[in-house]
Amino acid sequence: MRLKNLQLVNFRNYNDLHIEFNEKINLLVGKNGQGKTNIVESIYMLSFGKSFRTNKDKEIIKFNSENLYVGGNFFKYGSMRLIEVAIGKNKKGIKVNKIHIQKIHELLGNLNVVIFSPEDLKLVKEGPKERRLFIDKEISQIIPKYYNYLTSYNKILFQKNKLLKTNYIDKNLLDVYDENLAKYGSYIYILRRDFIKKISDIAMKMHENLTNGIEKLSISYKNQLGICEEDTVSSVYDKFLDKLTNSREHDIETRTTRYGIHKDDLNIFINDLDVRLYGSQGQQRTASISLKLSEIELIKKEVGEFPILILDDVFSELDETRQKLLVNNLSKVQMFITTAEVSHKNIFDKSNTTIFNIEQGQVINIENGGN
Ligand SMILES: Nc1ncnc2c1ncn2[C@@H]1O[C@H](COP(=O)(O)OP(=O)(O)OP(=O)(O)O)[C@@H](O)[C@H]1O
Ligand SMILES: [Mg+2]
């Protein structure tokens, strides 16, 4: 996958920007607050239809403007596709190859993007919610219908919990909610199980690489149903509905839902010790890097092409060995790297790097490598 170009109109601090990208490394260099992340944020929008920094679309529209536009051409499976996102004060439209899409899952899986920011270095350290979000984003861009299951599940869970908070609880309605939670939940459980199995194999190898074979990283699926290899959607449905039914009294008492995919997490072990509890800061960070980078291989395996990789401000967080490892090991991946550190320019092979120098919402100068 390769992003060819990008056009921004009234996007954050950009008036009207058009850039052509290098098929290998794109380095966005500039002082703080100049607009580097804004560019990668817009690339992310082409992939997910929304920002990774805010849920409020109107914050992204340039101050004192009415509408924004982001458009980008990219190559996938040998042909070029165009994604466009337009946002007005109260409306939003997304087009793929000039055709309006109705639902976000029609966009997902077009442009595959892996983004790595300093927050991600805390992936292992942080709470289960962040890890679930990581899992959900990744599966959604590989299997877009997963996003639909998840949206439906969350909607029902919200309704059920709302009902549990009322004084007169309609038990028949609770039955319907539980059956639907089991219906969508069983698909999600199975897809998560399969995803985690695949990513754990890749992450283990990645981690071995990063630690010179000293540490063995193992990742597994932490869930309340004890889901195993043999389980199918229908056996999970039965297990899950059973749990929900048995915890009915408990749910009514506590006014919330005890079992479900909203309680899932990952077990993350290094050399048989739980990294979250016993790992050093460094081990937790390295495990996060392994986990995060394994998405790249997985997308290549599942989708058939490498995703594009965004490293937002994360480069200076890595030590020199890892910086080199990243750049050398991922030579087939198109990268967008933001940095405020001018000296980073020297790390990259000039022949496949384009440097965009950014100042106050403008690309003031482009240093072009052989492209
Ligand atoms: N809606 C908006 N309209 C106009 N300007 C905006 C808008 N939202 C943010 N900005 C401006 O964008 C700038 C921040 O851009 P960005 O986050 O891309 O910076 P950066 O170059 O990544 O900086 P850093 O190195 O600190 O991460 C700020 O100066 C901010 O005022
Ligand atoms: Mg930034």
Automatic annotation (TrEMBL):
A single Gene Ontology MF term assigned here is: single-stranded DNA binding
Q: Which keywords does this Swiss-Prot/TrEMBL entry list? A: ATP-binding, Cytoplasm, DNA damage, DNA repair, DNA replication, DNA-binding, Nucleotide-binding, SOS response
Residues of the RecF/RecN/SMC N-terminal domain: 3-346
- InterPro entries for this protein: DNA-binding_RecF (IPR001238), DNA-binding_RecF_CS (IPR018078), P-loop_NTPase (IPR027417), RecF/RecN/SMC_N (IPR003395), RecF_2 (IPR042174)
Q: Which Pfam families match?
A: SMC_N
User: Binding of ATP: at which residues?
Assistant: G30, K31, N32, G33, Q34, G35, K36, T37
Main location class: cytoplasm
**One of the GO biological process terms:** double-strand break repair
Domain of life, source organism:
Bacteria
Instruction: Report whether ATP-binding shows up as a keyword of the record.
Output: yes
List the GO cellular component terms: cytoplasm
The protein's location, in the record's own words, is: Cytoplasm
Per the entry, what this protein does is: The RecF protein is involved in DNA metabolism; it is required for DNA replication and normal SOS inducibility. RecF binds preferentially to single-stranded, linear DNA. It also seems to bind ATP.
By its UniProt entry, which NCBIfam families does this protein fall under? Answer: recf
Q: Which family does it belong to?
A: Belongs to the RecF family.
Family matches, as HAMAP family: RecF
What is the name of the protein in this document? Answer: DNA replication and repair protein RecF
